[in-house]
Design brief:
Oligomer: single chain
Order of helices and strands: EEEEEEHEEEEEEEEEEEEE
Strand content: over 45%
Number of strands: 19
CATH superfamily of the largest domain: TonB-dependent receptor, beta-barrel domain
Radius of gyration: 25 Å
């Protein structure tokens, strides 16, 4: 049974002001962008005693607020017609607060501020008109979310318990096409993190039959990987002029690890499969009709706890999709059948669950329909 009946109301808002200028600098192409972003959240957070699923006495009454203001700029300068340098930065101010209006058990009101500046440097090279090579080095900074600061497992009244996570990011890749026949993207990346925010699921008291989320900082961690995508025109004019058969594939390799952690050494950070593949073979008719099979697969098992003693099994799911796009209305009808073999599989995991309840099952054979309209 859940420890409480939770009643939350969230209000979110955001806006952005952007300035762009595309004018030569020293007789070279130059594009400058500057902007101001503002976002806010106000959450009314009530808890009630759980009386068999019904609301009992109120035991929590908080107003949680989150505000973020960011100023950013970026400049792309063409050193030559085919080679450009990119530089920029971002200054962020973040504010988090809890206004505790239920103080019979002590006042848990608190607030915390975060300030950061993150630079970015990169390049873009047009090897040929349809092929680009790119690379960048950037600083990343992410303050805790209000959800993380006020999770049930956190210490009440101390919003400074969690540090913001920081990182240096390195990326190198290429993208391009060979006419309508073949298009691709490829990138390798490495992210060196400090104080990565990790979710663990703890028992609120000894032998509790349930767990609650708690967030903590990892002193050092590393995320590295490869992302590959391509679109191949395998055949054209099969049944009618201008129809086509296309193969689309997206593959990611992910290696997320602790770095010299005092508890977990260099173990894998749980929750992410090392390999993930989505591939689809789709027939397109010039009338707007399309259909085809597609496969999603995590072909190897992956760890679900930081001790690296439990794994989620691999899975491969076969699906089929179809649709009809009516261009005069910018509308599209969609149909999808998933898990055609009705296979039992793990769709998501709850990492580091103290009771070992790591696995959330995926749907069996299922069918979906919908409509999309753009205007």
């Amino acid at each position: 049974m859940a420890f409480a009946v939770i009643d939350n109301v969230d209000n979110n808002w955001s806006t952005e002001l952007r300035y762009l200028i595309d004018a030569p600098l020293f007789d070279h192409g130059n594009r400058f962008t500057m902007g101001l972003q503002y976002a806010g959240t106000r959450q009314i957070d009530y808890n009630f005693a759980n009386n068999g699923g019904q609301r009992g006495a109120k035991n929590k009454n908080q107003i949680n607020n989150a505000t973020t203001v960011g100023i950013y700029f970026q400049n792309q300068f063409d050193v030559t017609p085919t080679f450009s340098l990119v530089g920029g930065g971002r200054l962020d101010y973040s504010y988090r607060s809890v206004d505790d209006r239920f103080i019979s058990n002590g006042d848990a009101s608190d607030s915390v501020n975060f300030v950061s500046f993150t630079p970015k440097f990169g390049f873009l090279w047009k090897a040929i008109p349809t092929v680009q090579v790119f690379g960048n080095i950037s600083r990343a900074y992410e303050p805790p979310l209000i959800l993380e600061l006020t999770a049930p497992g956190q210490i009440n009244g101390d919003l400074s318990e969690l540090k913001p996570q920081r990182a240096w990011q390195f990326e190198l890749g290429t993208r391009g096409d060979m006419g309508e026949r073949f298009a691709w993207t490829f990138a390798v990346y490495d992210i060196e993190l400090r104080d990565e925010i990790q979710n663990v699921n703890v028992q609120p008291f000894p032998f509790a039959p349930f767990t609650i989320p708690r967030f903590q900082n990892i002193r050092r961690s590393r995320h590295s990987g490869v992302e590959v995508g391509f679109n191949l025109l395998t055949a054209k004019s099969l049944v009618q002029v201008d129809d086509a058969l296309r193969l689309n594939t997206a593959y990611t390799f992910s290696r997320f690890v602790f770095v010299n952690n005092q508890n977990f050494n260099n173990n894998d950070i749980p929750g992410a499969p090392a390999h993930y593949i989505q591939t689809a073979l789709r027939y397109h008719h010039p009338s707007g009709f399309w259909f085809g099979p597609w496969v999603e697969s995590a072909p190897t098992s992956y760890f679900v706890n930081s001790q690296n003693t439990a794994k989620a099994p691999s899975h491969t799911i076969f699906n089929i999709s179809a649709g009809y796009a009516y261009k005069p209305w910018n509308g599209e009808l969609l149909f999808q059948a998933r898990n055609l073999a009705d296979k039992a599989w793990v769709a998501a995991v709850v990492v580091d669950d103290a009771n070992g309840r790591f696995y959330q099952p995926g749907d069996g054979r299922s069918f979906y329909g919908g409509m999309r309209w753009k205007w």
